[in-house]
Design a protein that fits this description.
Elements: H1 2-15, H2 28-37, H3 42-50, H4 53-95
Length: 109
């Protein structure tokens, strides 16, 4: 068992023989420096600020709260309108002038 373990260790060490240091692509540092020196426009500044998770989450919460407020206030307005229409109907019922539909209007002058 010890012999098998030593054999595996030797295999692992031999696999590391051909390893070289990783290097970036040519012109990588030139492109990086150019990007860092470039001036950012106001729209890039705004978009980078809005893209932050905390700002995006706060904006989403604000939109949800505004929607909930509008929905709840419209439900209260509908309830008030319904109760007013019931009151108006009862007042209208008492103030109607009774007229018969079978009475003809004199159309001759």
């Amino acid at each position: 068992m010890q012999k098998n373990f030593n054999k595996k260790i030797e295999e692992v060490l031999k696999s590391l023989d051909g390893i070289e240091k990783a290097s970036p692509d040519p012109f990588f540092f030139t492109r990086l420096e150019a990007r860092m020196q470039r001036e950012r426009s106001i729209w890039e500044e705004i978009s980078s600020f809005v893209a932050k998770p905390l700002v995006a989450f706060a904006g989403l919460c604000l939109i949800i709260m505004i929607n909930a407020t509008v929905i709840l206030s419209s439900e209260q307005n509908n309830k008030n309108t319904a109760s007013q229409s019931n009151e108006t109907a009862s007042v209208d019922e008492y103030s109607q002038v009774s007229s018969a539909f079978y009475e003809f209007v004199n159309t001759k002058p």
